[in-house]
């Protein structure tokens, strides 16, 4: 029987980051991933010789000296991954279909100047907005780490509405929608989305937005290499079927109905609902907490269409487009029956050695209720009605985006699509949620979870606790690991790497 200092459940970014930290600090670590490949939303999969990314399409704060750069440097993966900076004059472009585009530029001054060209009378308000973002983002910067803090505050923004803040700050309705134009990244509900989440994500991208070159799988593989080099283990096809609690603490984890792994600590990087369902003989975590966790609402899923392009036909675009059919970006979801799609996030992939794109990814938010009737069907055995729905919706997305990019259709060689069911089946996301538990500014203390549990050697990590995305998940991993090896110690190690 194997025995480890820490068993980590889930091999997505959260689990891999925890594995990299703890193995680097000398603990014996084992990551358990139920899928055949490591990575979670960092996974890439092959179709017709093309590599398709699952969910990590760009990442912020990756310029030298910024937060993600510092974490990746500490992990030891900077020299193992390939990434490129998105266009500084517009990493995100917002288009409402009326012939004019609005850019979110990299760099605070450039961001202000760029938007002020279209909205000169709002320059002061744009500057104040940027100041708010900076105040939120500064709480996790490298200089904070060097002082011995993984995060130094900002919690007050968790209880403030992103929508209301933007609405009060600007006079122009158009500018309000331009500012919130990348809303599919962090939420889709003006009655719940917090300023904290909006600010962390948007500030990170303004600091320095980057795209991984080639595919995102190589990032997950780089983590694995580091963990293994530090003596850790990574096991795929390892489905956790039970976490054994004895005397108020965990002593072992069972995988695949046959293997028992002893451990001093468990970090769960999977959804808290799934974590709680795995506990055996639990008498410590009360029913009230279980009920609370089970009642938390999950974020929307994504319908994704991959356009696999004919070689050398469509020029690579080094920016992301948010394409709307209405100037109201808070218009929540599509009419799925009529395929009236409100927004598409358009993103290119290339291998870094060509001026042409190899794959275009189109994403639109999708509520799980639209596909829930097929929830119990299995991969490869979906009913004809589901297949027809996918085809119809895919065609609608291609027609939508072709209005913005003329000639795109002629460049397409193959087409593949996924729905929130894919996230549910391949990433164990309840309801196919893209961003985990919704962080509701009305109830921040309830919808933000602590990494500690009442079981003193069971910890939580990942996008469900605080902020999602690459930045939020990475910081969450550091907070979780600091509970095991010490907050000040770990912060200074990362900050001074």
Structure characteristics:
497 residues, alpha/beta, FAD/NAD(P)-binding domain, eight-stranded mixed beta sheet, seven-stranded mixed beta sheet, 16 helices, 34% helix, globular
Helix content: 25-40%
Strand percentage, roughly?
Answer: 15-25%
Mean pLDDT: 94
Q: What count of helical segments does DSSP give?
A: 16
Biggest sheet details: 8 strands, mixed
- Low-pLDDT ranges: none
**Main CATH class of the domain at 3-82 and 214-297 and 436-495:** Alpha Beta
Number of DSSP strands?
19
Shape: globular
What is the annotated CATH architecture of the domain at 3-82 and 214-297 and 436-495? 3-Layer(bba) Sandwich
What distance separates the N and C termini?
A: 36 Å
Which structural class do the helices and strands define? alpha/beta
The CATH fourth-level homologous superfamily of the domain at 3-82 and 214-297 and 436-495: FAD/NAD(P)-binding domain
**CATH topology call of the domain at 3-82 and 214-297 and 436-495:** FAD/NAD(P)-binding domain
Our Rg estimate from Cα atoms comes to: 22 Å
Describe this structure as you would to a colleague.
With 497 residues, this protein is of the alpha/beta class. The chain has a domain at 3-82 and 214-297 and 436-495: FAD/NAD(P)-binding domain. It has 16 helices and 19 strands. It has helices spanning 13-24, 67-75, 108-118, 123-137, 142-146, 162-169, 173-179, 195-208, 217-229, 272-278, 287-295, 384-402, 420-427, 444-447, 469-485, 487-495; strands spanning 3-9, 29-32, 44-47, 50-53, 83-85, 92-95, 101-104, 210-212, 233-235, 240-246, 249-255, 259-268, 279-280, 301-309, 320-324, 343-349, 359-366, 412-418, 458-460. Strands 1, 2, 9, 10, 11, 12, 13 and 19 form an eight-stranded mixed sheet that branches. The chain starts with a strand and ends with a helix. The model has no long low-confidence stretch (mean pLDDT 94).
């Amino acid at each position: 029987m194997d025995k480890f200092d820490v068993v980590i459940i889930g091999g997505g970014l959260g689990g891999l980051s925890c594995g990299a930290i703890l193995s680097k600090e000398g603990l014996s670590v084992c990551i358990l991933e139920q899928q055949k490949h490591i990575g979670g939303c960092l996974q890439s999969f092959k179709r017709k010789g093309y590599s398709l990314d699952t969910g990590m399409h760009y990442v912020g704060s990756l310029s030298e000296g910024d937060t993600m750069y510092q974490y990746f440097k500490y992990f030891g993966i900077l020299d193992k991954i390939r990434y490129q900076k998105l266009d500084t004059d517009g990493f995100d472009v917002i288009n409402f279909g009326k012939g004019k585009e609005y850019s979110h530029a990299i760099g605070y001054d450039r961001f202000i100047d760029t938007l002020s060209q279209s909205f000169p009378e709002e320059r002061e308000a744009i500057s104040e907005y940027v100041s708010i973002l900076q105040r939120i983002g500064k709480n996790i910067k490298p200089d904070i780490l060097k002082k011995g803090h993984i995060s130094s505050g900002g919690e007050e923004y968790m209880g403030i509405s992103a929508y209301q803040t933007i609405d009060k700050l600007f006079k122009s309705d158009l500018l309000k929608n331009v500012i919130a134009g990348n809303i599919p990244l962090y939420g889709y509900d003006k009655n719940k989305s917090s300023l904290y989440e909006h600010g962390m994500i948007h500030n990170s991208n303004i600091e320095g937005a980057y795209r991984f070159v080639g595919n995102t799988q190589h990032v997950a593989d780089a983590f694995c290499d580091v963990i293994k080099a530090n003596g850790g283990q990574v096991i795929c096809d390892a489905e956790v079927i039970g976490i054994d609690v004895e005397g108020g603490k965990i002593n072992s984890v069972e995988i695949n109905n046959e293997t028992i792994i002893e451990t001093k600590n468990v970090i769960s990087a999977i959804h808290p609902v799934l974590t709680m369902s795995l506990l055996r003989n639990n008498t410590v975590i009360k029913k009230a907490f279980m009920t609370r966790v089970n009642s938390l609402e999950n974020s929307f899923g994504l319908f994704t269409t991959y356009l696999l392009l004919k070689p050398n036909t469509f020029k690579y675009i080094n920016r992301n487009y948010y394409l709307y059919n209405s100037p109201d970006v808070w218009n929540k979801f599509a009419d799925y029956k009529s395929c009236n799609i409100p927004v598409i996030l358009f993103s290119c992939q290339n291998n870094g050695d060509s001026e042409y794109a190899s794959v275009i990814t189109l994403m639109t938010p999708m509520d799980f209720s639209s596909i829930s009737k097929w929830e119990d069907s299995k991969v490869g055995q979906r009913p004809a009605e589901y297949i027809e729905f996918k085809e119809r919706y895919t065609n609608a997305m291609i027609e939508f985006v072709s209005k913005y990019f003329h000639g795109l259709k002629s460049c397409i060689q193959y087409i593949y699509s996924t729905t929130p069911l894919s996230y549910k089946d391949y990433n164990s996301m309840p309801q196919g949620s893209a961003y985990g538990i919704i962080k509701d500014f009305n109830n921040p203390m309830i919808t933000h979870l602590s990494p500690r549990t009442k079981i003193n050697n069971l910890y939580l990590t990942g996008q469900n606790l605080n902020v999602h995305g690459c930045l939020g998940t990475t910081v969450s991993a550091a907070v979780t690991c600091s509970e095991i090896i010490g907050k000040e110690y770990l912060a200074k190690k990362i900050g001074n790497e």
